[in-house]
Amino acid sequence: MRFARSKRVLRLKTIDSCFEELKDSRLQEETFTVDEVREMLDGLQAVVRGEVETELINTAHTNVLLLRQLFSQAEKFYLRLQTDISELENRELLEQVAKFEKTDFKSTNKVNQESSKPKLAPLNEGGVSELLNKEITRLQEENDKLKTRLRTLESQALSVLDDKTKAERALKDLQKVQGEQQLAAHSQEINRLGATVSSLKEDYEKSLSANAASQKDLQENLVSAKHDLLRVQDQLSLAEKELEKKFQQTAAYRNMKEILTKKNEQIKEIRKRLQR
Asked: What does the DSSP 8-state code read for residue 233?
């Protein structure tokens, strides 16, 4: 508050100097016109407005920096701060602050007041140490829990690896036994297939000698069937030509042909119009 009060006093002195400068520089004559008075007031308004606006902006920025310092310190010690904007317009609290400023910053006996008034006690480092000790204790407890969980997981992992090793050994033994059984079964299957192949070979040789005799008859029958097929195809072609000739001679065919011719001419005419 002392800093804000000094800045406010300095700004008020600047505004007073603006008025004094106007009095000394412009108020030399006894009478002024309305335009001259208006011009002086407009100039004074611009100067005062600039000074007040500068002070308000500076005050707002100073408050922001102050709050930033407080929040940074609170964040450092893991504190959570809450603000109530509505309290900034509490008239009763504002009057209390004004009363405190008047009683605390009186110009008379200021030196004695500075020496006699109570001062804030230094920051209690024990509170910070207590917070840090609590945080360290909490982290150590979490570390112990994690170590216990890690040991449990390691024992479970070793148990799983042991079971896996046993299962792999049992699987290898089973595969070995199955391999021997499959080898014997394959040998029996190969012998059976060899006998079957020999039997099929004999049957094939017998059927080959029989088929050689009947192959000549089959070729002769095939040639005869081809001739019969060609003759039937010629007869079908002649019948189709005669049927088409009879159909073209009918009135329905001629009418349909005329209709198609007219439609083609109409389509050509429409295409010509579209191309234009």
From this structure: H
Q: In three state form, how does the secondary structure of 2-71 look?
A: HHHHHHHHHHHHHHHHHHHHHHHHHCCCCCCCHHHHHHHHHHHHHHHHHHHHHHHHHHHHHHHHHHHHHH
Note whether 55 and 8 are within 8 A (CB).
yes
Instruction: Give percent of the chain above pLDDT 70.
Output: 86
* Cα radius of gyration (the chain): 58
- Whether the CB-CB separation of 29 and 132 falls below 8 Å is answered with no
pTM attached to this predicted model = 0.34
Phi-psi region of 84 (alpha: psi -120 to 50; beta: other; left: phi over 0): beta
DSSP H or E run through 165: helix 125-248
Instruction: Please give the Cα distance from 200 to 256 (Å, whole number).
Output: 68
Q: pLDDT tens for residues 71-125?
A: 888 877 777 777 777 777 778 877 887 787 778 666 544 545 455 555 444 444 4
Report the distance separating Cα 65 and Cα 210, nearest Å: 115
For residues 151 and 256, what is the distance between their CA atoms, to the nearest angstrom? 97
Q: What is the reported pLDDT for 224? A: 77
